[in-house]
Amino acid sequence: MIFTTQIVRLDGLILVASVDDQQVQELGELKQQIRQVIKRITPSSEPRASIESNKYTMHYVLNDNLCYIAITEKAYPKKLALTFLEDVRGEFQTSYTRDEYLGQQLRPYQYSEFERYIERTKKTYQDSRATDNLSRLNDELKDVTQVMTKNIEDLLYRGDSLDKMGDMSSRLREDSAKYKRAAVRINWELLLKQYGPFGALGLVILILLVWRFW
């Protein structure tokens, strides 16, 4: 379940916030932690990440100095939460211009009317077992397979940085590509070892046949 959603500029200004789920007792504390996390995010931070707490997970998507945030129950699929945030991001940046949402004269909750779109969209994502949501979850067109996950206590109290997470993510992608190339090479070597002698024998027979009937 998605409990709350926010759109926040990296300078800390909240542009949109959904209506909170009052059943979540720790939500106030979590929102305090969100404010601390926002202070640690820079334009070079990991663009998509999930930060886990005891019972809940904070997911964010970073784009153009805006941070799109959702708090979900811990069991909610990370990929689905990030796809939800990508939908919110796409609609918001289509509805408003960059000059508008990065302007200096904005007040907190300037785009509160956008909360209606968030609520409508959230309803379609609330049940992660729904057929449409499972389809979204498996949609490879959404490039959220490389999701960095971090514990919020490590991030806030042990000094880990989101920039460091970005470096880790880059290394993981590089290592993945390296292992993929190695696997392809090994597969070719196995094929050559298994079928090479037969191929060589066939080639010799072909040469003999051509030489005999030339």
End-to-end CA span: 77 Å
Reading off the top of the CATH hierarchy, the class of the largest domain is best stated as: Alpha Beta
Residue runs with pLDDT of under 50 for 5 or more positions: 140-145
Beta-strand percentage?
Answer: 15-25%
The pLDDT mean sits at 75
Count up the domains. 2
CATH architecture of the largest domain: 2-Layer Sandwich
Number of strands: 6
Strand order of the largest sheet: 2-1-5-4-3-6
Structural class: alpha+beta
The helix fraction, in percent, is 40-55%
Helix count?
Answer: 7
Query: CATH topology of the largest domain, what is it called?
Result: Beta-Lactamase
Quaternary structure annotation: single chain
Shape: elongated
Say which CATH homologous superfamily of the largest domain is assigned. Answer: Longin domain
Q: Could you give a short account of the major beta sheet?
A: 6 strands, mixed
List keywords for this structure.
214 residues, alpha+beta, Beta-Lactamase, 2 domains, 6-stranded mixed β-sheet, 7 helices, 6 strands, 52% helix, elongated, V_SNARE_CC, transmembrane helix, transport
